[in-house]
Amino acid sequence: MSGFPGEPACWSWSLPTVLSREQEVDRLEEESLRQAVKLGSMDHYLPPSACRMLTRDWPAYLLNSWHDDRCALCGIRPGHLVLDHEYSTGLVRGRLCGGCKVSEGKRFAEQDPVYQMYRERHPALILGLRIYYVGRGWAEGWWNDVDTARMLTGNPKKSGDSVTRTREERNRG
pLDDT at position 166, please? Predict the structure, then answer.
């Protein structure tokens, strides 16, 4: 694990300089214009509308930018990171490589305290972000109340679909 031995890698990362969303849109546009001029092709230019689209989900954008393609636990850049979340609350904790994600779900704090340390002080907490996980199974699996899940994640109710059923009601059929 990179960073300091015996602690999650993300604990040693510098905190980002936080810009407002509009400042970040301007920065991205300027950066893309410099790149386009350098390469002599406007194919690499991102207009403000494209930059706004990139930063549409501002908390997730901040989290992903800070991660910089690094696993929060081991610090490696595997090319693909998965979103890690707390199953009881649905809150995103951070991004992990596949190996750390599998291990995080299986290791107990007594076996490797780094995982417990990560759970207590994860990237989203460090950055002061509240992001709700909306991946596979979010509405039927670990949420007790689908209405609450939809409200917390901002997903609208489906028309004509009863989304107020509890887990027990869904299991009964």
Answer: 45
